[in-house]
Amino acid sequence: MKVLAVADVHSPRFHEDFVAGLKDHDSPDLLLMAGDMVNRGRAAEYSRIVESIGDILGNDFPIIACFGNDDYGERRAAIIENGGDRITFLDEKSKVVETDGLKVGIVGTQGSLDKPTSWQRKTIPSIKRIFAQRASRAESLLRRLKEKTDYRILLMHYAPCLETCEGESARSFAWLGSRKFYSVIKTEQPDLVIHGHVHNATTLEAKIGDTMVYNVAFPAVGSLTKLEIQDGSG
Ligand SMILES: [Fe+2]
Ligand SMILES: [Fe+2]
Question: How far apart, in Å, are the Cα atoms of 222 and each of 48, 91, 193?
Fold first, then answer.
């Protein structure tokens, strides 16, 4: 099964380059978006993204997305509307997609930060609790998918490990991701983890136990990330 994954296009910022990137690839069986596809909550840019994907790769495959921090909370209803029938947003939810003979379970979440930003602390007083709950929610969603799927994917925006943040200052990990999600992955061992958010990463792949982790942030990768999935073997 062919999967394309991308995050952090921050449209319109990298939209032109994203279109060039789409032209490098054939139509996938599944396209995953790991958040921040538009800049600063610009919901209408999701329509442009859907249009560009349709023009170049067609519309015969599902697009599953999670939200990033630039998909501002107050703009999410408009973002979902602009994604229309084409994009399924998973916000602490899961979905099973059957394609190419495989039952693929996807859990989507924005993920967490070990240290909320000062803006998050000011505007969302319960943010620490929310971040802790997101990790345990992702864990239980992954657990529930185990019996009924051939392959499990955790689709998240923030980083779950230090390795795919290399290139950024090591001290900034607390603002890039969360160790809580590292533990979730270590315990649940999904087959694949896709994340974004880390624009300046120089290492794009890592392993947590048997789980492959990919940072698919467009500014770091320079294109979409292409992955080939086989039953249970990654
Ligand atoms: Fe971003
Ligand atoms: Fe981000």
Answer: 19, 26, 19
Burial class, 36, CB count within 10 angstroms (exposed 0-12 / middle 13-18 / buried 19+): buried
The domain spanning residue 142 has which CATH number? 3.60.21.10
165 alpha carbon – ligand 1 mean position (Å):
13
By the CB criterion, residues less than 5 angstroms from ion ligand 2 are 36, 68-69, 197
Its pTM stands at 0.97
Gap from CA of 70 to ligand 1 centroid (Å): 7
Nearest ligand to the C-alpha of residue 218? 1
* pLDDT tens-digit series, residues 20-69: 999 999 999 999 999 999 999 999 999 999 999 999 999 999 999 999 99
Query: For residue 83, which of 65, 98, 68 has the smallest C-alpha distance?
Result: 65
**Total domain count, the chain:** 1
Residue 216 belongs to a domain = yes
Decide if 28 contacts 3 (C-beta within 8 A).
yes
Cβ atoms 61, 3 nearer than 8 A = no
What value, to the nearest 5°, has the Cα angle with vertex 158 and ends 155 and 162?
A: 110
Q: Is residue 234 part of a domain?
A: no
